[in-house]
């Protein structure tokens, strides 16, 4: 089995990019990454949609990936976003992430231009041939205006370093279709928090999650229950997390997420235009959800820490 598949099972975090005085806050990012790892997150995914990648300069993109790699220190993989609707620009982002020490790349379908399936094939093949890193495809048609056909995914999977797909379509039957066509080694990760449990139980490997930034220990526990096929526990976690999933998408991601993390004291809630602050009405709704979920998250984090101490003592 592909080593990345083994290491990325479970909940990975789609990282936001913190700002301070309008500049990327690398200190806050470092501390935030370490917190996520300590709370059971399987992989870190900087410079994607949640990380406001289109609003970062090339230098900032490189810095964010490098800081994430340093914070991970080999404990978890770093899957760096390297997406653009300009293939040449995507290649440069991919090479930059490789120089920064990323474990793999996350490459989204080209937005706005609406290329054909043949065009997307050439886009991803060009990125593949320009770097030595494993590549995860990213299919999010609601954001990009174009979608990867199953046949295109299968053809791209024939390339030696295209190893997985982040699927944000919410199409649960697709998991079984792709698994039959691609086999057990191809990494299938959900990109839709609300349906991630169904995705896992249908044969998926995990989720690149927005919610994991707010409740990493709970998300790690949810995916542990999915691993064991403990359906009653999965339903319990789903019930707890459903209001948080909803609250984090009251406005365009990452607007509610950054507000939530600011309320929790984990980073500032600064955004770059054209993103604007969360509306007061939605802010009140978000705070009510956080009051409940935060208590449960801290309990689960304490349980995880105690289990690790017990394991270390036994060893």
Automatic annotation (TrEMBL):
Active-site residues, record numbering mapped to chain: 138 (proton donor/acceptor), 166 (schiff-base intermediate with substrate)
Catalytic activity of the protein: L-aspartate 4-semialdehyde + pyruvate = (2S,4S)-4-hydroxy-2,3,4,5-tetrahydrodipicolinate + H2O + H(+)
GO process terms (BP): diaminopimelate biosynthetic process; lysine biosynthetic process via diaminopimelate
Binding annotation for pyruvate: 50, 208
Chain positions of site Part of a proton relay during catalysis: 49, 112
Keyword Lyase: yes
Pathway: Amino-acid biosynthesis; L-lysine biosynthesis via DAP pathway; (S)-tetrahydrodipicolinate from L-aspartate: step 3/4
Location(s), subcellular: Cytoplasm
Keyword set includes Signal: no
Primary location recorded for the protein, binned into one broad class: cytoplasm
Keyword annotations from UniProtKB, A to Z: Amino-acid biosynthesis, Cytoplasm, Diaminopimelate biosynthesis, Lyase, Lysine biosynthesis, Schiff base
GO molecular function: 4-hydroxy-tetrahydrodipicolinate synthase activity
E.C. number: 4.3.3.7
Pfam families recorded: DHDPS
InterPro entries: Aldolase_TIM, DapA, DapA-like, Schiff_base-form_aldolases_AS, Schiff_base-form_aldolases_CS
GO cellular component terms given for this protein: cytosol
Protein family according to the UniProt entry: Belongs to the DapA family.
HAMAP family from the UniProt entry: DapA
Subunit structure: Homotetramer; dimer of dimers.
Biological role: Catalyzes the condensation of (S)-aspartate-beta-semialdehyde [(S)-ASA] and pyruvate to 4-hydroxy-tetrahydrodipicolinate (HTPA).
Protein name: 4-hydroxy-tetrahydrodipicolinate synthase
